[in-house]
Amino acid sequence: MNLINKKYFQDYMPENVCFGCGVNNDQGLHVKSYWEGEVAVCHWQSKEQYHGWSNLMNGGIIATLIDCHCMGTAMAQAYKAEGRELNTPPEYRYATGTLNVKYLSPTSNNHPVELRARVVEVKGRKTVMHCDFYCLGEKTAEAEVIGLRVYDSSQSDDNNVFKS
């Protein structure tokens, strides 16, 4: 799979220090998401420190991957809906409104995982998404996620939840 020249959503999130997706967090997971048609895709390889039981991925890490993948997807969807490139103003940031993860079967910590998210609904500043989580071709988790736009650089600070 050729991932060179992909436009990763997280590369367009200035000053992001999030543990899951922050490009400015040396200790983080470095989630990288991109469009494949109408589906946002992320491929990620775990490390030994992220196991739960021996050889199995920690459930909190799975939830974090889903969460950060979907917040990047919500941001990218907003730009896409406006017909804009990711690096154009105004800048948007999203935070998790809800995260409902169903763990379907254990996930290997020794093999790459793939996340596939699709936007189900956009209503105002709320984006509803469904995310499937795969390992070795098997869906091991799925989630319903709501992302809330908490920052819009075209609005005054009084209208933003998050202030840079």
Automatic annotation (TrEMBL):
EC number: 3.1.2.2
Thioesterase domain boundaries: 56-140
Entry's localization field: Cell projection, Ruffle membrane; Cytoplasm; Membrane
Keyword tags: Apoptosis, Cell membrane, Cell projection, Cytoplasm, Fatty acid metabolism, Hydrolase, Lipid metabolism, Membrane, Transit peptide
Pfam family, one: 4HBT
Domain of life according to the entry: Bacteria
Record's bilayer topology term: Peripheral membrane protein
Family annotation (InterPro entries): HotDog_dom_sf, THEM4/THEM5_acyl-CoA_thioest, Thioestr_dom
The protein's enzyme class: hydrolase
Catalysed reactions listed for this entry: (9Z)-octadecenoyl-CoA + H2O = (9Z)-octadecenoate + CoA + H(+); dodecanoyl-CoA + H2O = dodecanoate + CoA + H(+); tetradecanoyl-CoA + H2O = tetradecanoate + CoA + H(+); decanoyl-CoA + H2O = decanoate + CoA + H(+)
Family in the record: Belongs to the THEM4/THEM5 thioesterase family.
Protein name: Acyl-coenzyme A thioesterase THEM4
Lineage: Bacteria, Pseudomonadati, Bacteroidota, Cytophagia, Cytophagales
